[in-house]
Amino acid sequence: MSSKNNGLSVSPGTVLSVVCLLLYSAGFIRIELKFNDHDQRLIAVEEVISQMKHGVAHTWNKETSQLNSGKKETNSEIKLHRITRSIANNPTFNNSANMKQALEDVVTSSFKKICQKSGDLKVCPRGLPGPPGRRGRKGSQGIMGPQGPGGKQGVMGPPGRSGKQGINGPPGIRGEKGIKGDIGRPGIPGIKGEPGESISVPKVTIFPASQLTVNESNTAALFCSATGNPAPQLSWVRVDGSLPSNKIKLTSDGLMQIDDVRLEDAGKYKCMASNILGQDENAANLVVQSKPKVSLSFGTSYVERNKNITLPTCHVTGYPPAVITWSKVHGELVQARALSKDGQLSITNAQKKDSGLYKCKATNILGYHSAVTHLSVVELPQFTVRPPGQLKMSTNRNIRVPCQATGDPLPTVTWVKENGELPLGRSKVSVDGTLQVWNTKEEDSGRYTCVAASAEVFRAFSVMKLTVTECGPVGVEDRNTIPDARMTASTYYSNLYYPYYGRLNEDRGNGAWCTKKRTDRTDYLQVDTGAVHSVCAVATQSARIEDIWITSYKVHFSTDGVTWNSYKDNNVEKVFTGNTDRNSIVKHSLSPAVKARFVRFYPVTDYGHPCMRVEIFVLK
Fold first, then answer.
1. Per-residue DSSP letter, 429
2. CB of 505 closer than 8 Å to CB of 477
């Protein structure tokens, strides 16, 4: 637990101030003592000099009278030594004792030869005054001595240089407050003054009283005055807003001035006055008149033919309110199908001729302003050639899928792949909308959409599912997969050339199917695959033991065995190239694959006789 010092605490500054005062006082006392000592010494010197002058004069007069009486006793030269003051060393008056000794020596040496003793008295006669000596150099200014009794005031020397300002000492302790004096007697009552103005609450008046109308870009000024005692303080505020600080001027006498006034400055302004008794307020409306200003989106606005359309709103600012009118820039506005209301133009049952620019014009007493917007009436795209709903394709194949559409304006046809992109570097969309894919891969499988867009607004879509799989044999070569009963023909040459001998790599009989007649081009070999497949390729082979084969052929397909379709390439029935020797197998891919269960092979040309062995490939 700390102890507290209950004694009087003295700050170091106070101690230092006391020590400095003591040192200054001691210095002043020492200087005063020095000055008193010098004054005493100077007085002593003046007395000695006065006595010396008086004694020398008396002795000189006496001696002179003796010389004039004819005495020659004084043959020896009486040398009168003139008292001279040496100033070489410029002695000071500070050593009074030395000065007095020097004067005594001079007097003794000057008069010791002319002084005579007469009895008990020693008489020194005064000699003749000698010629005045050469004036010595002027001595330095001495210290002004004290004024003697009846003497003249000494000449004051020049003032010395002022010393540097000393450091201010700390302020002293403030003294105690004095005792309050007695209340004096009341004075004489003054003359009664005139009665003052009675105090009152403020009363505000605004000029113009209720409304000020100003044209845009001019200056608006409202003046507020108020009565009341004491004089009320005036201030301006804007109701439901803030004052336009960048261009407003307010004066203490109640003037509010707005330079370069704009529409947004219009509103209600209120003046308020207040004093100690209360407050009052009054308001006036500022109305800003301006030419109309139109704001309208250019568009373009699109509408399908025979549909209704409302053009963008025509926004108008200005005062007084403007009258809005709509017109067609090129051509006439069909009034029977057009309706204008609240700055909007609506057109019903839009037709192609309604396409074009439409102008909105706003007019008031100060002028007018207008703007235009564009309308385009379009016909929806319609496909003229659609892609197939499903397309199966074997790998390493090239495909071409056409897609075409019409419309007004002419639609743009593009392709997109669901959840991905078109095969990079292996695909292309032609100007006519045809999709091409080269060297197909299994990862190309997916949903492809053909998009026909008019003016990038109206779109039509057609979806195709592409399946890319391996193209493998359906199993004609295998009797367990395709039984003999599912291989038939229009005719056959003999029991060595049955239709089921027409399997690829068949070794029964003569190892081939041959037509009965060589010249009948209606003969065919038919294979029932047992189910509808996507046929992606066909292959042929010559007879096993003879140099007879087909050199060209056609293929027909059917899903039900009743309706048949020939395979076409670019809408032309395709003729496939056949064999050129006994052992080689010639395979042809179908692009795109064909949906079929039944396949017929029709010989067209042959070598020796129309004979063949076949295999059918389908997408797995």
1. E
2. yes
Distance CA 376, CA 378 (A): 6
Cβ distance 482 to 476 under 8 Å? yes
Other C-beta atoms within 10 Å of 518: how many?
16
pTM: 0.44
- Could you give the C-alpha distances from 60 to 54, 133, 341, 364, in angstroms and in order? 10, 18, 148, 136
E-assigned strands of 487-569?
487-489, 513-514, 525-541, 549-558, 565-566, 568-569
Please list the rounded mean pLDDT of every run of 10 residues in the chain (620 residues). Answer: 45 76 80 74 69 53 46 39 42 49 52 48 59 73 51 60 77 81 78 76 91 92 92 91 88 91 91 92 92 92 90 92 93 89 91 92 93 91 92 86 91 92 93 93 93 86 92 94 96 96 94 95 96 94 93 97 94 95 91 91 96 93
Q: Judge if the upstream peptide bond of residue 320 is cis by omega within 30 degrees of 0.
A: yes
Instruction: Please give the DSSP secondary-structure letter assigned to residue 354.
Output: G
**Segment holding 360, helix H or strand E:** strand 356-364
Q: What share of the chain is helix, strand, coil (3-state, %, to 5)?
A: 15, 40, 45
Give the H/E segment covering residue 344: strand 344-347
Tokens describing residue 518: 């060589």
Give me the long-range contacts of 362-365 (CB less than 8 A, separation at least 24).
362/292, 362/293, 362/294, 362/314, 362/316, 362/318, 362/322, 362/323, 362/324, 363/292, 363/322, 363/323, 363/325, 364/291, 364/292, 364/318, 364/319, 364/320, 364/321, 364/322, 364/323, 365/320
